[in-house]
């Protein structure tokens, strides 16, 4: 049976980081002690409703943007001549201009507040960015009446987590998790991910097959078939992520744990965890071998709220870099 409440996992300490004040460390320690095991108690009762084979997450049905954001750039369709009833419809209109991986539109701007938009209500501007991973922003904040979003062409919107083992490439999902993608764009702009690391690694064991399908009559952990880490950058205060699209976790899903900065890469289909996690990306299929290799690294055990977990003896640090299907750029 699943727990009656869903607490969060605590992040183990691997020593103080350079430049951290002792007070900040103590506050962080107090915070993580309140966290527990969101990933540690799967609900077996719900797994029977999950399809035996689950493809990596896609953006089918997802078309969201960021409120209070006005993207700039050359227009491929003027909003004064292109009015639609919703931001989702504007997003879909942009996506419709993607054909065979080539997107004539890769960003959209919509005005959906009748009071603030006035005569501009319903305008849907379709635009083409010079660099979709560094979009041109003219205004951002609560006083901005526009909602904007991104659309990635095939091969765009890929971030590589570069480790000493190899690079795990992640296809970001801007239509499903625009706030999360916005954070990645911020990290890439800093050219720094100091402190970002994997610290928990649990393989599939004999509980899931190589496709991530749960074996009949097997337990649901431990181990729990996942990598877990943090995307908190040293010196950059992390703003908790809002909850976005939360499909069932599939093999290759990349999702926030709670509201971040902890995140996970799922090595198996985890329908038993229901729809509890914001999924913001998907590992490029050929890179799952690197994730599996990481799960075989030496670990030690710890107990989080009476649940045994496996922690990497040596955390695996990574750099976040722009990437493509062919490699890190």
UniProtKB/TrEMBL annotation:
<dbReference type="InterPro" id="IPR002130">
    <property type="entry name" value="Cyclophilin-type_PPIase_dom"/>
</dbReference>
<dbReference type="GO" id="GO:0003755">
    <property type="term" value="F:peptidyl-prolyl cis-trans isomerase activity"/>
</dbReference>
<dbReference type="Pfam" id="PF00160">
    <property type="entry name" value="Pro_isomerase"/>
</dbReference>
<feature type="domain" description="PPIase cyclophilin-type">
    <location>
        <begin position="159"/>
        <end position="311"/>
    </location>
</feature>
<feature type="transmembrane region" description="Helical">
    <location>
        <begin position="21"/>
        <end position="39"/>
    </location>
</feature>
<keyword id="KW-0472">Membrane</keyword>
<keyword id="KW-1133">Transmembrane helix</keyword>
<protein>
    <recommendedName>
        <fullName>PPIase cyclophilin-type domain-containing protein</fullName>
    </recommendedName>
</protein>
<keyword id="KW-0812">Transmembrane</keyword>
<dbReference type="InterPro" id="IPR029000">
    <property type="entry name" value="Cyclophilin-like_dom_sf"/>
</dbReference>
